[in-house]
């Protein structure tokens, strides 16, 4: 009986994969459903450019519109060196701080200081539905470096286009 059930399972599994146009032995052979990866990569780059332009212009509304409104995360992790410096001054300091893009939007909107984040060594990966962006950054305030580190963004394609779902960055502030 077990043997018949096993054979039936294999027949059903094989027919399912056959109906899907693929074999169970080679799922990597599935053709990509999105032929617009280059276009999506450019669209993700446009989100990065819009983010930078919104910060330069202190345009909080534009900056906020780039994020997924219902649940974007914002995580800052202090580097080993920065954590040691902060811990020496404030013993109960935490290394990982979870914040919100809305706090950053308020800062950008209300500050009189000139902000200029620079991004280098950028790498964008996407399948046309989700994307990740990794880069090194230096954050300038009034032309002076105040922070540097690496960032990773997770973006997704929503009904309204690409939105930032998560920004996580290492932080090595110049104190």
Automatic annotation (TrEMBL):
The keyword Signal applies. Keywords: Signal. InterPro entries: NTF2-like_dom_sf. It comes from the Bacteria. Residues 1-18 form the signal peptide. This is SnoaL-like domain-containing protein. It comes from Acidisarcina polymorpha.
């Amino acid at each position: 009986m077990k043997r018949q059930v096993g054979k039936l399972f294999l027949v059903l599994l094989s027919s399912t994969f056959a109906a899907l146009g693929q074999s169970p032995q080679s799922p990597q052979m599935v053709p990509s459903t999105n032929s617009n990866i280059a276009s999506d990569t450019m669209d993700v780059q446009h989100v990065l450019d819009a983010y930078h332009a919104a910060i330069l212009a202190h345009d909080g509304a534009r900056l906020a519109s780039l994020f997924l409104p219902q649940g974007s995360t914002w995580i800052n992790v202090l580097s080993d060196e920065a954590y040691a410096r902060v811990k020496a001054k404030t013993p109960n300091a935490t290394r990982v701080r979870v914040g919100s893009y809305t706090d950053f939007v308020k800062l950008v909107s209300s500050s009189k200081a000139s902000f200029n984040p620079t991004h280098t060594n950028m790498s964008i990966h996407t399948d046309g539905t989700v994307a990740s962006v990794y880069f090194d950054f230096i954050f300038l305030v009034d032309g002076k470096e105040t922070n540097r580190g690496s960032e990773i963004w997770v973006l997704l394609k929503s009904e309204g286009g690409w939105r930032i779902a998560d920004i996580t960055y290492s932080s090595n502030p110049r104190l």
